Amino acid sequence: MAALGWLTPRRRSATARSVLAGEASAEAARKSTQESLDPQETLTPLDTSDREPPFPVHGDAMAAAFFDLDNTVMQGAALFHFGRGLYKRKFFETRDLARFAWQQAWFRLAGVEDPEHMQEARDSALSIVQGHRVSELMSIGEEIYDEYMAERIWPGTRALAQAHLDAGQKVWLVTAAPVEIAQVIARRLGLTGALGTVAESVDGVYTGRLVGEPLHGPAKAEAVRALAAAENLDLSRCAAYSDSHNDIPMLSLVGHPYAINPDAKLRKHAHKLDWRLRDYRTGRKAAKVGIPAAAGVGAVAGGTAAAIALHRRRR
Question: How confident is the model at residue 115 (pLDDT cuts 50, 70, 90)?
Answer without folding.
Answer: low
